[in-house]
Amino acid sequence: MENFKLDQPIFIYDNVTDTYNDIRNGMFEVNLPVGVFNSRFSLRFKDNTLNVEQNTISDAIQINHIQNDNSLLIINKSLNTIVEKVILYTILGQPISNWKIENQDQQNIKIPIKNLRSGIYIVKLQTSNEEVSKKVIVLDK
Known about the structure:
mainly beta, Immunoglobulin-like, four-stranded antiparallel β-sheet, three-stranded antiparallel β-sheet, 6% helix
């Protein structure tokens, strides 16, 4: 590359987990199942997790697993953000389920989930403004 500064940050961005991995300061390792992942990773030169606007929307949305009725509760405190779709992934990035959100109270979205083992999952929300991914811990009854 030409005109590239030696101290320029370089990140591998994971589109599924919405994480930036600094490869300038260390190795990046990920365990994936066998398959093709053409659009999961991209090379970035700026860590957008430092972007205040993105964090504001992300902070305005909470995702919790409600153990006693085996559901996901999405609390949306942003009046300007509409949750349009919810996608549930394993921690390895494998999609499990997805739900289109229509005609629901946007401040308290409840999604029934069944047959999930205890573990950590990634919930990706597609909103009217952006995509937000958060980790959620699911515990068996």
